[in-house]
DNA sequence: CCGCGATCAGTATCTCGACT
DNA sequence: AGTCGAGATACTGATCGCGG
């Protein structure tokens, strides 16, 4: 019987190794990702080659180049590992008894809004659960959630991959403040609606949400009040509505 | 020449059968 | 059921050697 027909004879950790190699395209970085030593990763790759009967990767200057066979395995392997994670996470989860550590990524603003009510809930219903909060770019958050490094990311997201579950926590409002003595009309089509006013802190980056939302106003004058998409959006527990986002 | 994967040698851990 | 020992397996640090 070929080893792939006998799961008992297979070290299923090799699938995690293969996933890391496909993700990093670099043996040393894949080893650091798991974490394990570079020789151990090299041996694991050798066992994978033997098991699958394919070289899987070719050595190049910058790391490892996957073979067509390895590339063909990438998507189904990722789905299988995601199913295993869901299986293990959902099978016996009891908040009151759980001692899990959940890894969350969010901005400091997101933390200030979401964490206080979340911590109250955890203290009341899941006192054994710990949170690891980190900050990452939005692309880093999406990548972290996709590969299992993060359990949850909280941010303002545009498009996300189809295999990532998402939910709207709350909608945010903005307040425009101006010196009343200046006589500047604070309206959507007032001076603040037109360039050169720019909210983005880093103009080289994609436009900030405020700039993106103002863009139609700057060209077409006042717009009707924004409506949230779809059904009534859930709000984060007892999170208060906030003023303007700080830069 | 340099970066990085492969290999070597020694060691630790695991598995399994034999024995009490 | 528990213990022991041999063999298999996987780990590590050090080093080799290939590819660009």
TrEMBL record:
GO molecular function: DNA binding; DNA-binding transcription factor activity
Region (Disordered): 200-247
Claim: Nucleotidyltransferase is one of the keywords in the record: no
InterPro entries membership: LysR-type_TF, LysR_HTH_N, LysR_subst-bd, WH-like_DNA-bd_sf, WH_DNA-bd_sf
Superkingdom of origin organism: Bacteria
Keyword entries, A-Z: DNA-binding, Transcription, Transcription regulation
Biased composition (Pro residues): 222-232
Span of domain HTH lysR-type: 10-67
Family: Belongs to the LysR transcriptional regulatory family.
PANTHER family: HTH-TYPE TRANSCRIPTIONAL REGULATOR LEUO-RELATED, TRANSCRIPTIONAL REGULATORY PROTEIN
Name of this protein: LysR family transcriptional regulator
Taxonomic source organism: Achromobacter ruhlandii
């Amino acid at each position: 019987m070929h080893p792939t027909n006998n799961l008992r004879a297979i070290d299923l950790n090799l699938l995690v190794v293969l996933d890391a190699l496909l993700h990093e395209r670099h043996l040393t970085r894949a080893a650091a990702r798991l974490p394990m030593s570079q020789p151990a990763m090299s041996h694991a790759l050798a066992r994978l080659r033997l098991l699958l009967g394919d070289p899987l990767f070719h050595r190049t200057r910058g790391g490892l180049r996957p073979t067509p066979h390895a590339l063909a395995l990438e998507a189904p392997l990722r789905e299988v590992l995601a199913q295993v994670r869901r299986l293990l996470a959902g099978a016996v989860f009891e908040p009151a008894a759980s001692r899990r550590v959940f890894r969350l990524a969010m901005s400091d603003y997101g933390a200030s809004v979401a964490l206080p009510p979340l911590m109250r809930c955890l203290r009341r219903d899941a006192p054994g659960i710990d949170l690891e909060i980190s900050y990452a770019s939005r692309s880093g958050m999406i990548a972290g959630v996709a590969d299992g490094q993060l359990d949850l990311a909280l941010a303002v997201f545009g498009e996300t991959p189809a295999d990532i579950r998402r939910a709207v926590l709350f909608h945010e409002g903005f307040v425009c403040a101006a010196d009343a003595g200046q006589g500047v009309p604070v309206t959507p089509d007032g001076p603040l609606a037109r360039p050169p006013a720019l909210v983005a802190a880093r103009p080289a980056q994609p436009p900030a949400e405020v700039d993106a939302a103002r863009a139609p106003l700057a060209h077409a004058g006042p717009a009707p009040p924004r409506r949230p998409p779809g059904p009534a959006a859930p709000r984060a527990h007892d999170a208060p509505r906030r003023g303007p986002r700080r830069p």
